[in-house]
Design goal:
Number of strands: 3
Oligomer: single chain
Structural class: mainly beta
Helix content: under 10%
Strand content: 15-25%
Distance between the termini: 39 Å
Radius of gyration: 18 Å
Number of helices: 0
Strand order of the largest sheet: 1-2-3
């Protein structure tokens, strides 16, 4: 994802999917460039296997109580 400043407005772009960013996009990292946002780092020597799992919980930003669905209350 990247951003472009044009005629006084910022536009967020998704070059992978050739579209502008919408509410369907979920930001998972922030940095100055891609090296600040690496999910995996390191070097594999020999045979190696890797598995990555990502879970995202999307909540209504208008829920001012900060309650998460399925969370126990104390």
């Amino acid at each position: 994802m990247g951003e472009v400043y044009d005629r006084g407005l910022w536009y967020a772009l998704d070059p992978t999917n050739d579209m502008t960013v919408t509410d369907s996009h979920i930001k998972i990292s922030n940095g100055r460039d891609y090296r600040d946002c690496l999910i995996n780092q390191g070097i594999f020597v020999g045979t190696a296997a890797q598995k990555q799992t990502v879970k995202v919980l999307v909540c209504d930003k208008n829920d001012r109580d900060g309650n998460l669905p399925g969370a126990s209350r104390r």
